Amino acid sequence: MIVGTVREIKNHEYRVGLTPESVHELAAHGHEVLVESGAGEGIGAHDALYERAGARIVPAAADIFATAEMIVKVKEPQTDERAMLRSGQILYTYLHLAPDPEQTRDLIASGATCIAYETVTDDSGGLPLLKPMSQVAGRMSIQAGATALEKANGGRGVLLGGVPGVLPAKVAVIGGGVVGFNAAQMAAGLGADVTILDRDPQALERLGMYFEARAKTRFSNRANLAECVAEADLVIGAVLIPGAAAPKLVTSEMLGTMKKGAVLVDVAIDQGGCFETSHATTHAAPTYIVDGIVHYCVANMPGAVARTSTYALNNVTLPHALRIADLGWQEAMRRDPHLLAGLNVWDGKVTYQAVAEDLGLPYTPAREALA
Ligand SMILES: NC(=O)c1ccc[n+]([C@@H]2O[C@H](COP(=O)([O-])OP(=O)(O)OC[C@H]3O[C@@H](n4cnc5c(N)ncnc54)[C@H](O)[C@@H]3O)[C@@H](O)[C@H]2O)c1
């Protein structure tokens, strides 16, 4: 199969769909790989590295869209890219169609076979192609929080781990899923005094068994939340209610109970945020202050560590890309219902129920694409 990857053109997107190592694997399977010149610059992967891995460097994205049978990307195709998609071409990338009627309309019009990373499933009922970005954001939330706690950034001037003779900072992690687990791991590793709040007893049990004495777990209810937030130097918002906006667990009144210069990192900002005073920020100006409390609310945290994020993403996207290239998308999906769950648009039809329902469009079950 001819597989192509292009330079991401969304604002401040530095990740790339295929690393040189992924290109090497595809080439070893006998596929031809086209890479747009400069596609890997954002992660320090220059054209020469891709060439050495077996890719052919192509000067313009248009030539790749015109030739490749499968396009592997990171972000949803932008308007100019959507205009270049062809009928029958495979698009394998994050799409997030439900809130995006314009993109959905263009993908329908293109006739392309559009596979969304974010809806591919696994045996445990999880979303394995989303997980690495939650891992990155969870780990980064502690780095971002530690920086915001510095005086020059408006923080209380507290070092997360303390020093011998001085107590460490208190960190409250609200939500003990993928983001929360990774945040707690980083904070506990630095020696902070960590409490993880969740309302799922099984999650609390798992976390308790993993962390033992290195982090405390606490049931998430109003009273416990209020107490933890009031005592914390750093609060990480990491809740998720699938398919719904994040609940506003920390209200604006609760800010008044917090220590001045404490920090809130709202990782759940991409679902609207779990602090009432949160609004989305960018890496260019990641924080703002409300009532003396520093807020960090960057909606695309993994973008700041594009190299780590790209490699983490490729680790989970490449196995499916290889099977699609080796077998063709229909046979690959026949053999793997989890990959079939990723099919969002095919032959001008919406094949993912939640997207069709949210956008009021007719729904065609994905398995009809395999007939
Ligand atoms: N900002 C970013 O760059 C970025 C990157 C990745 C993920 N995220 C977001 O981070 C959030 C968390 O993602 P995840 O992968 O960890 O989800 P997850 O499903 O693995 O974990 C969410 C956890 O929240 C818990 N929860 C739900 N309601 C709660 C409540 N009232 N109190 C305490 N806990 C509660 C759930 O029980 C679950 O354990 C999501 O909104 C996700 O979209 C943001």
TrEMBL record:
Per the UniProt record, which EC number(s) apply here? 1.4.1.1
Q: Would you tell me the Gene Ontology cellular component terms?
A: plasma membrane
Naturally occurring in which organism (per UniProt):
Sphingobium wenxiniae (strain DSM 21828 / CGMCC 1.7748 / JZ-1)
Q: Which reaction does it catalyse?
A: L-alanine + NAD(+) + H2O = pyruvate + NH4(+) + NADH + H(+)
Q: Under what name is this protein listed?
A: Alanine dehydrogenase
Domain of life, per UniProt, equals: Bacteria
Q: Which positions fall inside the Alanine dehydrogenase/pyridine nucleotide transhydrogenase N-terminal domain?
A: 4-137
Key words of the record? NAD, Nucleotide-binding, Oxidoreductase
| Active site, per annotation | H96, D270
Annotated positions binding substrate = R15, K75
Whether Transmembrane counts among this entry's keywords is no
